[in-house]
Amino acid sequence: MPSRSLLADAFRAYPVHLHQKHLDFSSLQEIPDSHKWTQVDDERHPSVESFVTESVPVIDLLDPNVLQNIGHACKTWGVLQVTNHGIPISLLDNVESASRTLFCLPTQQKLKAARSPDGVSGYGVARISSFFSKLMWSEGFTIVGSPQEHFRQLWPQDYTKFCDVIEEYEKEMQKLARRLTWLVLGSLGITKKDLKWDGPKGESKESSAALQLNYYPACPDPDQAMGLAEHTDSTLLTILYQSNTSGLQVLKEGTGWVTVPPIPGGLVVNVGDLLHILSNGLYPSVLHRAVVNRTQHRLSIAYLYGPPSSVQISPLQKLVGPNHPPLYRPITWNEYLGTKAKHFNKALSCVRICAPLNGRVDVNDHNRVKVG
Ligand SMILES: C=C1C[C@]23C[C@@]1(O)CC[C@H]2[C@@]12CCC[C@@](C)(C(=O)O1)[C@H]2[C@@H]3C(=O)O
Ligand SMILES: O=C(O)CCC(=O)C(=O)O
Ligand SMILES: [Fe+2]
């Protein structure tokens, strides 16, 4: 992932000065006020979760109907789980174990690799924390490009073996993300001929990506805590490995929060804001969050995949016409990350140039765009 400057640049203009309160979660018997969330009980939070019978589609990538299945899942859910994706279980185990080792280090050691306020990589609380008055019950570690610089601070003696695992994971995830992107585009009727992300001389440009390791310690009062608050990802798509502990929830319109149960070896794929823009709102980016539990800690590993740095993302030509005007203006990922850093869940609306003809507005203003 060579485009580290792109992603890092996006945040330089919007430094996040979080009053980084690093708790030793394991020693706490109750939740401090700083981490106590009052439960919002609106129509998006059904009080009896067991009434939810709908579930996120699980798609076998070797199924002959894979294109239709992916298209339907993206349109109706904005999220799916994939099996038969080709990522070896041993690699998933290795990256999980490396992440576990990282988060088990003493706090003082982890802080040696702390993310700087205007940086993108390193250890810290969730970036989106600055938009909330309460802190989240989690720790994170963001990696853009090579983890070497930060891993050397964590493990001066044996950082290379951890670097090797992460680099292998990034390489495999990039291949899968590319494959999934073409499947998603294929489901919209878009072929490689329709989409030129090559340079002026036909040279192919590298996509950009970030790896986000999330750790959610067990929590004495999970109903009053939040692992990772609701958000959409700014990506084209995100591939999430959530190991074997549940906690991920997605918002389904008309239903409420739906838990995405871990399936052995399965990977969750989220539609991100850039795919939302590219599809002119046809494939909505999914609002999601992570909740915590009383007995088990939880790990998740998100591969956040985006287009090459200089590529302007705008609604695909094939999807716009007299009855389907483009809903969003062209924007690069770098610019969009800046918009997100400033406006968070209102970022999509900031890029919108035209209300959908059916008159509805965006989820990121807590109302979903519904088109098509
Ligand atoms: C490329 C990126 C997307 C991300 C910001 C980042 O630079 C690296 C971390 C990503 C992440 C992961 C947790 C949720 C999220 C909203 C956040 O605060 O950091 C996403 C960002 C995003 O998708 O906007
Ligand atoms: O931990 C999870 O299940 C969600 C993580 C997530 O949404 C993210 O890293 O962007
Ligand atoms: Fe996310």
TrEMBL record:
One GO molecular-function entry: metal ion binding
Keywords noted in UniProt: Dioxygenase, Iron, Metal-binding, Oxidoreductase
Broad EC category: oxidoreductase
Fe2OG dioxygenase domain boundaries: 207-307
Gene3D superfamilies per record: B-lactam Antibiotic, Isopenicillin N Synthase, Chain
Keyword Aminoacyl-tRNA synthetase: no
UniProt pathway: Plant hormone biosynthesis; gibberellin biosynthesis; Hormone biosynthesis
Highest taxon of source: Eukaryota
InterPro entries: DIOX_N, IPNS-like_FE2OG_OXY, IPNS-like_sf, Iron_ascorbate_oxido_reductase, Oxoglu/Fe-dep_dioxygenase_dom
Gene Ontology BP annotations: gibberellin biosynthetic process
Cofactor(s) of this protein: L-ascorbate
UniProt xrefs under PROSITE patterns: FE2OG_OXY
UniProt entry tagged with the keyword Oxidoreductase: yes
EC number: 1.14.11.15
Similarity field: Belongs to the iron/ascorbate-dependent oxidoreductase family. GA3OX subfamily.
Protein name, UniProt field: gibberellin 3beta-dioxygenase
Native source organism of the sequence: Dovyalis caffra
